[in-house]
Design a protein that fits this description.
By secondary structure, this protein is α+β, with helices and mostly antiparallel strands. It contains two helices and four strands; from the N terminus they run E-H-E-E-H-E. The protein has a four-stranded antiparallel sheet, covered by helices on one side.
């Protein structure tokens, strides 16, 4: 069986104020050091609302503006937190008939 990951594309030209549900795949998130540093970093930034954050076994899911994704990646990178992928959570668009 194929390992299929359904994702939507990120429109990098999206300058709306609508936040998107985005997943960050984080390396070694199962270690206390990484999990603690990640939570401290995310709680200290205004990019994400902590009440909307979902911590998963392999990463973190947040509501974020598309134009803020590169800023988030830089913050994580500067904190020596490994990022393996970033993608919006799959949400099929309803087709008009």
């Amino acid at each position: 069986m194929n390992d299929v990951l359904l994702i939507n594309k990120i429109n990098h030209n999206d300058y709306t104020k609508e936040k998107k549900r985005v997943f960050f795949l984080i390396g070694q998130i199962n270690t206390p050091r990484v999990k603690e540093e990640l939570m401290d970093l995310l709680s200290s930034t205004k990019l994400v609302d902590m009440s909307e954050l979902v911590l998963k076994y392999n990463g973190v899911e947040v509501e974020i503006l598309v134009q803020s994704i590169p800023i988030m990646i830089k913050l994580l990178s500067d904190a020596n937190i490994d990022i393996y992928s970033v993608y919006p959570i799959y949400n099929p668009e309803k087709k008009r008939i």
